[in-house]
Amino acid sequence: MVMTSEQSTSLKMAQLRLACEKEIRACCERSGLLATSIRESIKSIKPLVENAETNRGKLDMLKDYLKEMESTFREALKANASKEAKHASMSEAISTMAVRIEYLKETVDNQRAKKDEYEAVLSQQLLALQKIEEKNEGDVIEIKKLKEATDWYRSVLGFQTEGGEGVKFIFNKIDRNDQDKEYWFVVRLDGDIYTLLHCNPELHDIDDLIEELNRTNRLFKFVRVMREKFQEISCKDTHSIAVSSPPPKSTDSQMEALIQTNPSVQSKKHQAGSLHQDVPSPAAILTPQSFSARRRSPRFLVEKLP
């Protein structure tokens, strides 16, 4: 009898099912054996794990103890090194102190030997100091006289200076009709060049005077010439010479002394260098009573102020 395709397929499926069931039973048997073996292995490994945990705790304790011992050892090394350094430092300090003591002994001996010499020098210095004090007292008197003369120059000659953008030179007591009328000009020193900033009243030939000033560097002469120019202007306006103004040649040295005593002009003078002008000494300063009698004396211009 011939089998149909459906019957053949059913037969193959039945065979495959039997084979699969057989294989499943075999797998189940192997799984059971493997599970049994695993349970036995776990039973045998558990004491080892417990022993390993115990040994791990002991190992941690040993590590902590080792760290403490290492820290203690390091501290001991540091303390030992510090003690050795202190010992070396003390030994060096003792040696240095011994040398220092010997040096101080020699110094004391030398100081004792020089004591008499210093006393002699000190006595000489005291004598010199007394002479200097006497000289200073004389200088104070001369400075007082110079200040009195300066104040007199301002009141009689009508000359003063002011600082600012430049040095302002102011003259009065020139105009016969108005003794308080001021004639002034402002000069600035920039490096080695003098510049006229302002002039009241204006002068026609002022450029030539500035050029001569920069060429000769004689500031005092320039101030005298400017005053003479102002006097000429005043004479032209009034057709007569002002009575209160001394003759130009007789006031040269007084004006120079006043310029030198003014701090603002002194700073300009030091920048420009020495102007090589003679000024009266303190001993030769005029008073109002002696001015008319001594103004023409050539002995008035004798030496420079210090």
From TrEMBL:
Report any one BP term from Gene Ontology: chromosome segregation
Q: Which residues form the Chromosome segregation protein Spc25 C-terminal domain?
A: 163-231
- Record protein name field: Kinetochore protein SPC25
> Disordered: where is this region?
261-281
Show the coiled coil region(s): 66-149
| UniProt cross-references to CDD domains, sorted A to Z | RWD_Spc25
Where does the record say this protein resides?
Chromosome, Centromere; Nucleus; Chromosome, Centromere, Kinetochore
Q: Which Pfam families would you find in this protein's record?
A: Spindle_Spc25 (PF08234)
Query: Its function?
Result: Acts as a component of the essential kinetochore-associated NDC80 complex, which is required for chromosome segregation and spindle checkpoint activity.
Which superkingdom, per the lineage?
Eukaryota
Self-association and partners = Component of the NDC80 complex.
Species per Swiss-Prot/TrEMBL record: Dendrobium nobile (Orchid)
InterPro entries the UniProt entry points to: Spc25, Spc25_C
Similarity-based family? Belongs to the SPC25 family.
Any idea which UniProt keywords this protein has? Answer: Cell cycle, Cell division, Centromere, Chromosome, Coiled coil, Kinetochore, Mitosis, Nucleus
One annotated Gene Ontology cellular component of this protein: Ndc80 complex
